[in-house]
Amino acid sequence: MDETAGGTRPGKAASTIPWNVQDEKSGTLFARRLGRGLLWTVVALAAVTGLRSWFFPDRPAPAPPPVVKSGPDYPTDAARAVASRWATAYLTWDEKNPTARQTALAMDMPSDANTALGWDGKGRQSVDELYAGEVTVLQHGQARVHVEAHVIANGGSADQGNWLALDVPVAQTHGRIVVSGEPGIVGLDLDSVTVPTPSPTQPDVDMSQQTKDVISQFFTAYASGNASTVAAPGADIPTLPKGFTLASVQDWNVDAGSGANRSGTAVIKWQTAGGTIEQTYRVVITRVASASAQRWQVSDLHGGAY
Question: Membrane spanning segments where (predicted)?
């Protein structure tokens, strides 16, 4: 029987194909290509970003400045007040009343402090004048107050007194200032010094002559307590203490310049306490105009040449 017709050819196995080849739809092909393109775009961006960070690294944001918390300023006014009161008690003693000094000292010292503070209980001394000066702030609430005092020994008169300086140690504790230990008497700094003289101001001679009577009238009224009657409107000039009378205007020079407010220097001689004393003032005069005329009046002054 011939098996070549409709049968299997001898010597060759039958051919078998497990799938069928089909044409890919256009939408699927586009989606695949789009996804592939997006993937490569991301890879490219990552590569570029990484390379840029190698050569141009991001600089970190500057750190904010540190916050410095400062404590309250040292109470120097309170330190001066306590040191003044305590130094007055410390420099005052009377052998007839020895406990008075200790009682006064205890007011500004810790409760367990020794209030005798080295005095042997003999003699007599009092304080005529006392002034607290520089406060040197130290660590841990400690400070040192420089005090200058005029003391009189053994009931003498004021002209027999002696000036001395005292460094008083104080401490800030529990909301108050106390004296923390024994003081020390130190020398007074009375060395001769010089002060730079300000450059002289060029005077306006004509203006000085025109307004000298204004200055004389003002200081006459100033001594009598009636300065407001001759001062410029709105001027606030405190009344001079009683006991002064104008003896003379020694000198009056208006500074060179212009305008409705001018400044000048007045040298005044006051009569007081049975004698005379010379004083220097800086004076501001203001031009005051009315319907019929204008005049210069004093609007401000202070003591000193500048």
Answer: 37-56
